[in-house]
Design a protein that fits this description.
Helix 1 packs antiparallel against helix 2, helix 7 packs antiparallel against helix 8 and helix 9 runs antiparallel to helix 13. The strands form three sheets. The protein has a five-stranded mixed β-sheet, with helices on both faces. Strands 1-2-4-3 form a four-stranded antiparallel β-sheet. It is built from 17 helices and eleven strands. About 55% of the residues lie in helices and about 10% in strands. By secondary structure, the protein is of the alpha+beta class.
Length: about 425
């Protein structure tokens, strides 16, 4: 199915009609019709972008697989539009469902992405200036990893579940209908998965439990067509009062964006339209996952534990690139994070799990520059410290050649090839060989 042409549908509809029939049989006619509508809109947009000389965007809609990547990469822009539309829209002309993508996608491509790129360029320029580095164009801040995932202290796919987590999940999980891709039941299973994965950090005794109970209640009482969420403001307020929700949670649920850039970093699941608060099960899932991070990130035990988890993840990713991890954690009461050997050279890697919520720096270029400078200075001091004690590794491993690196969870801007953002961890081996050369 991933190979189904999308851009080429304007010339040949046969592949789409074949899949429409199969999806109708597998799911339902309304489901298949929505898929067909999206494919036709995407095909039309690909033709339009190519006619305007934007071939790279048209090529991104070549087939279904590339279209998925294209839309995934722009999901923050769609969220930003969602949050600014109620404030920005004026007039009386309604936009019909068939026009939604053809109207909104050019806004994303011609305004949203250039605005985000310009802001990213400003962040990079100020970050380099604060470090005394020459300003140069084309510098990217590696915010997203190859899976289009945003940085966080410890992702759910990196957590190894404990026994109590498995017990909780199997007790709480619900049955999913086979004719649904998204549903209220899936949202409840998402919550159970988060609770199970992070069970060791006592989510049940935190504000996360209040948010989780609220979202579960919303999923049972306020979902329309198993996807849309609609609730009157007064009813939501009553639910929050009954749950004794803290003010910070109330504010996080509905936070109108004052600008497009602010909307890019928003996790608020609700927007207010026509006197009702509206959301979807996917927006609520996104919110509750982010709320878990906000709840745990300030806890010292979580910070320490996720530091060890990060080291394990780095070991696994370096092993995939041919590095042999050594069983070295402590020498003469001095600790090391990750020690590896590749082609007769010791690579001593410091794993820095420093983190700050991107929303606090993503829309403020000067704040990002200050934080970036503080991190880089700290990492360079860490590298100097490792050089001063490399004799310990030489004696333990009987290898004379030792190199030192830092892998940082938070994406940073610098020219030091020894400081590798985790979103660029796949470049580690090429950077290592370049350093030796």
């Amino acid at each position: 199915m991933f190979e189904m042409p999308v851009a080429g549908l304007v010339y040949d509809l046969a592949p789409l009609m074949d899949w429409h029939a199969r999806l109708t049989e597998r799911f339902s006619a309304p489901f298949a019709n929505r898929f067909r509508q999206l494919m036709l809109q995407a095909s039309s947009m690909a033709t339009s972008f190519r006619s305007q000389g934007i071939g790279e965007v048209a090529d991104a809609m070549h087939n279904l697989a590339s279209l998925i990547d294209y839309l995934q990469l722009r999901r923050r822009h769609f969220v930003a539009l969602l949050h600014v539309l109620p404030k920005a829209c004026r007039g009386t002309v309604c936009m019909g469902p068939l026009d939604a993508l053809t109207v909104m996608l050019p806004i994303v491509e011609f305004m949203g992405i250039p605005m985000m790129s310009a802001h990213g360029g400003l962040m990079a320029r100020l970050a380099r200036e604060s470090l005394g580095l020459p300003v140069k164009g084309g510098v990217e801040i590696p915010m997203l990893d190859p899976g289009f995932l945003e940085p966080e202290r410890s992702r759910i796919d990196e957590i190894r579940w404990q026994e109590e987590g498995y017990k909780h999940f199997y007790a709480m999980r619900g049955t999913l209908r086979s004719d649904r891709l998204f549903s209220a039941a899936e949202l409840r299973n998402d919550i159970a998965t988060i609770e199970a994965a992070y069970a060791e950090f006592d989510l049940a005794g935190s504000d996360f439990a209040i948010a989780a109970a609220l979202v579960r209640r919303l999923s049972r009482q306020c979902v329309v067509h198993d996807f849309w969420v609609e609730i009157a403001p007064g009813m939501l307020e009553a639910m929050l009062d009954a749950a004794k929700a803290p003010s910070v949670l109330r504010a996080a649920l509905l936070r109108p964006a004052s600008s497009y850039m602010e909307g890019l970093s928003s996790y608020a699941p609700f927007v207010q339209l026509d006197g009702m608060l509206r959301s979807t099960v996917t927006l609520l899932s996104r919110f509750i996952y982010n709320w878990r991070a906000r709840t745990l990130d300030s806890r010292k035990r979580y910070q320490i534990r996720t530091g060890f988890i990060f080291e394990t993840v780095v070991k696994d990713r370096l092993t995939e690139q041919g590095f042999a991890v050594q069983e070295v954690k402590r020498i003469n009461r001095r600790e090391f994070d990750v020690v590896t050997v590749l082609e007769g050279v010791v690579w001593n890697v410091q794993c820095k799990n420093n983190f700050v919520d991107l929303a606090t720096v993503d829309s403020d270029a000067r704040r990002f520059a200050r934080y970036n400078r503080a991190l880089i200075k700290a990492y360079e001091k860490a590298l100097d410290k490792e050089r001063r004690r490399e004799h310990l590794l030489q004696a333990r491993l009987s290898i004379a050649h030792v190199q030192h690196m830092v892998v940082t969870r938070f994406p940073v801007v610098c020219d030091n090839p020894r400081i590798v953002p985790f979103s660029r961890i796949d470049e580690f081996v090429s950077r290592a060989r370049a350093l030796l050369a």
